[in-house]
Inverse folding.
């Protein structure tokens, strides 16, 4: 680009191309993160260098953000025990990330979880809505209140000191 090429329109076109390139890099990085567990199991893993030095910075450091796999697993555990459709799963992910995942990404994730035994098909259905799935990952137990003391009337008789006759 020469000085004679500099105009507001030319700069706007250049900026649009750079933004499109940046978005493509982010999509490829997300795909790489999604498939990283599969790459780690291959005999010769592909080495990926660190992000190239560029003047454009991410809005949040990569260390603080959760991977898409972690977010998907958290949403999966929160799904109803009776079963859920892929659309319900996509909505749960949207509530966390404020971004709807692509249908192919959700299908790929659910198929991988089925192979790992973390998800089962609760009801096989054909058509647009698809099958119902059920998560088999144990749900986290909520923190319970401390146990009642021995003086409490809620303690049953079998745990009370026995009287000898």
């Amino acid at each position: 680009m020469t000085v004679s090429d500099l105009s507001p329109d030319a700069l706007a076109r250049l900026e649009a191309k750079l933004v499109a390139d940046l978005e493509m890099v982010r999509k490829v990085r997300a795909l790489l993160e999604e498939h990283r567990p599969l790459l780690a199991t291959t005999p010769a893993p592909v080495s990926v260098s660190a992000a190239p030095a560029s003047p454009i910075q991410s809005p949040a450091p990569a260390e603080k953000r959760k991977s898409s796999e972690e977010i998907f697993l958290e949403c999966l555990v929160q799904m109803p025990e009776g079963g859920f459709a892929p659309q319900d799963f996509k909505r749960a992910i949207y509530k966390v990330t404020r971004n709807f995942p692509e249908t192919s990404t959700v299908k790929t994730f659910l198929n991988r979880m089925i192979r790992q035994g973390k998800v089962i098909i609760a009801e096989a259905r054909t058509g647009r809505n698809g099958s119902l799935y059920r998560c088999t990952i144990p749900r986290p137990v909520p923190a319970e209140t401390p146990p009642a003391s021995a003086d409490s009337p809620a303690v049953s008789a079998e745990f009370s000191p026995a009287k000898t006759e």
